[in-house]
Amino acid sequence: MKITKLSIFALLSLFITACTTPKNNDLTKDLTTLSIVEENHAVITENMEKYTLNTYIKLFSRPYFIHIVKQNRTEINEATALKIVKNYIQSRGCTAPIENEQIIKKSVDKSQLIIRLEC
Questions:
Q1: What is the model's pTM?
Q2: Which residues, 6 or more positions from 7, have their beta carbon under 8 angstroms from its beta carbon?
Q3: pLDDT grade, residue 12 (50/70/90)?
């Protein structure tokens, strides 16, 4: 009887852990309410690491949302990501100085970020 109770407890714990563990490490679902700026897609190399960047906007709104993905799926250094994103957007739509930048979302493995910029 004790073995049965222990087995049920172990299975229940395993089930709860499986249900609470994020299965999708992709942030693109968080961008579905925004419009992508197709011509701003870029792959940038910084310190021998490749990053994919895409720009999203809210129509008739000021901020840009940049989705940055480190291609080797390792953790992105936030300072490096902000530097890359600032340089990237300056040549693609920011005609004024960048006023505000925020990392608003990180993937579980921190290989993806969504950064909000105003200019």
A1: 0.75
A2: none
A3: very low
